[in-house]
Amino acid sequence: MKKSITKVAFAAAFAAASVLGLASCSKDNGKTLYLYNWTYYTPDEVLRDFEKEFECTVKVDSYASNEEMYSKLKAGAKGYDIVVPSQDYVSIMINQGMLQEIDQEKFTNRNNINPVVLEKATYDPTMKYAVPYYFGAAGVCVNKTKVPAGSYARDWSIFSDPQFKGHATMMDDMREVMGDALAHLGCDVNSLDDTELNTATKLIQEEWKPNLIKFDAEGFGKSFASGDFWLCHGYAEVVYGEVPEDKWEETIDFFIPQEGGASYMDSMCILKDSKHADLANEFINYIHRPEVYAKFLDAFHFPCFVNMKAEQYMTAKPMYEASQMNNCTLKVDLGEGLDKFNTRWQDIRFTD
Fold first, then answer.
1. Residues 6+ positions from 75 with CB-CB distance below 8 Å
2. What is the pTM of this model?
């Protein structure tokens, strides 16, 4: 899942150089943890507090996509201890023997994890290899200054609404758009049924696409803030990150339709060849102390869904209520079945 928390572009600039530095990690004294994570995904305060308590050093390297992370590891990058892949790549990495088991005796905070989240993590529901870090979903952003309150549906059919024609955009992401269309039709977002996929494709082409300016993965936040886009499909943080905080309430109506949709979950995993597995297990357990996890949520105004006990320690108002994600379904690795999505997405994107 591509992240858009803020300034993701910096990730690639440091990737190559950091590998060289990590290659020498065997010279450390065993008190250095090497974290390979999404850009700006763990607050510095959390890292520094962990270093102080455990008398260690945390070195962070970052990536901007699962593909970048996976390709780098498969190409032979060494030295990392923890990675934070999304659900489909967790599944792939488990099957390929790239991860080691979590030390359950050290994971004393396991009971803080929301059971609903584990039910959705069908690839590792017992957290044998992967401990949930964050569960998120794309939703709908409406500019309240442009359309009257109560004048639009609060489900995926909103993209068929003619009042948004010429001022709407959806993500340039086939699993997201087609998954949400499938959810709207009452189907599984991971469906490989040809009839269901064809019906979803027709819905997008004939009812949603005519209202869209374009499919846009990240730039929609700025256009929403400027007033050009009135209706956007995407991650809340992209829009909230562009609109001044004192204007959030009067400008943004963000919601995830009750019918559900596609979602992602990033998890903390320990690599098979980690040289600091004990420290890595301590870090994973530390993150899920409720008061620590709350600092992570507050830093990004994220809703509290993974670690429910953290909510009592939160001081920042989340962008939306966590309960809105209850009906969302994780996008799983479809293997060769992904070609069914690819073929139809090409028709959607490039056929008038």
1. none
2. 0.89
